[in-house]
Design brief:
mainly alpha; two-stranded antiparallel ribbon; 1 helix; 2 strands
Amino acid sequence: MATATRICRVCGKEYEFCKTAHKDGVFRWQDVACCQEHGQEYLAQVRASRSKATETATATTKKKSKRKARAKSKVKAVAEPAAEEVTEVVAEVATTPDETPEDE
């Protein structure tokens, strides 16, 4: 078997591992750690850091959504009075009698 040496990602100790036993997409503690316990510890650290990153990304997305919603409501609040004013002006014009110029 083809063996090589790697450095344990938990304790930093150099260890031998088998290159040919590697399978894509499958976690093997031998690929990252010198012993099974260190492999479990490393996997727990990775999962914890990924869940923190996911929580941070989710919180950031929620904050951005709230900011966008607030900005949209401000735009609507500013735009609505102008639309009401236009409606009032149109209503006033429609209710005033037509003034036709007198023939001279």
